[in-house]
Specification:
Helix content is 28%, strand content 21%. By secondary structure, it is an alpha/beta fold. The longest helix is centred in the middle third of the chain and has 15 residues.
Length: 352
């Protein structure tokens, strides 16, 4: 059995990790870490787990934790792991970090967008960006540190990746318009996330400044082997969970003066995703919807070509707490330990 420790187990992503891993036949959760609820029964905080979890919340004593587990999930704020990670820790345990501390390879870019100093930049080069559908080959049993991608970034990247990789769109014209449920902001009490603030309301935020922007640019830049600069605008919508990304880009004109047709675009998606368990390319004319991926590790994608403007509209939907966080983290753990990638993640989407 793989012994697991979760730091931040009482946050939304942490609780999803618990929910998923309780059904993973090769895992035993031995450490439910939470600074806010030390010594309280975990099932008293999340009563959906009453009779299912008989354990108390523990602190985040990494020295003790590293001796007790095989892998640590850190579902923590930015800067937490970077502030305490050492070579000694990585020699003892594997880590899947759900924060942004090791996602961005350029330290200056990270510090500019996150407004904090990076305390352990020496590990950035080693960290593998854990978007499995793109970086699967780099995540092996020799990997010590995985940077689990962000929720917006996972949806945004996977929605556009095949067309960027195949050079079918002008990436310099790419615009990403994305909407997220309130759980994406975390479980902490914040006035903008109160029911009366969110209900019957919709708003853009982080306009031209959202910190997931450089992560999306960096990864799509690797896909097309050039520096990418794009517009990313997130919106908060009055629902619990889910992300919908609608992306717009100019199609690249061919030498004969024509533009890529529907069949060529669909072929690109099928080329990269036909064998992927968790990316579903929908039938023509079917638009992704958040309710059809809720509670699951799936990403639904599709597209429409606008012949009038020679643009393609790409669409993607996922559950921000599963494929956008905890589910993807479990995918990464499975790869780290040589298990089937989908183990524990056979989650059928919920229906309200």
């Amino acid at each position: 059995m793989i012994k697991v420790g979760i730091i931040g187990a009482t946050g939304y992503a942490g609780q999803e990790l618990v929910r998923i891993l309780l059904n993973h036949k090769e895992v035993s959760i031995v450490w439910y870490g939470s600074r806010s609820y030390v010594d309280q029964n975990y099932a008293d905080i999340f009563q959906n787990l009453f009779t299912l979890v008989d354990a108390k919340c523990m602190d985040d004593n990494f020295a003790e934790l590293c001796e007790a587990v095989d892998v640590i999930f850190t579902a923590t704020p930015q800067g937490y792991l970077a502030g305490l990670l050492t070579e000694e820790i990585l020699q003892k345990v594997k880590i899947v970090d759900l924060s942004a501390d090791y996602r961005i390879k350029d330290v200056a870019t990270y510090e500019k967008w996150y407004k904090i100093e990076h305390k352990s930049p020496q590990f950035i080069g080693e960290a593998v960006y854990g978007l499995c559908e793109i970086n699967r080959g780099k995540i092996t049993n020799q990997t010590r540190l995985v940077a689990n991608p962000g929720c917006y970034t996972t949806c945004s990247i996977l929605t556009a990746y095949p067309l960027v990789k195949e050079g079918l769109i002008d990436v310099d014209t790419l615009i990403i318009d994305a909407k997220s449920g309130t759980s994406g902001a975390g479980r902490g009490a914040k006035t903008p996330n109160l029911f009366c603030e969110v209900n019957e309301n919709m708003k853009a935020y982080g306009v031209a400044s959202h910190r997931h922007t450089p992560e999306i640019e960096e990864q799509l830049g690797y896909a097309c082997d050039k520096e990418v600069c794009l517009n990313f605008t997130p919106h908060l919508v009055p629902m619990n969970r889910g992300i919908l990304a609608t992306e717009y880009a100019k199609l690249v004109k061919k030498p004969d003066g024509t533009y890529p047709a529907e069949a060529e675009i669909r072929s690109a998606y099928e080329k990269y995703y036909e064998g992927e368990k968790f990316v579903r390319v929908l039938k023509p004319g079917v638009c992704p919807e958040t309710k059809w991926v809720e509670g699951s590790n799936y990403v639904d994608v599709n597209f429409v070509i606008d012949d009038r403007t020679h643009r393609v509209i790409m669409m993607g939907a996922l559950d921000n707490l599963v494929k956008g966080a905890a589910g993807q983290a479990v995918q990464n753990m499975n790869l780290l330990f040589g298990l089937p990638e989908s183990m524990g993640l056979e989650l059928v989407p919920m229906f309200p």
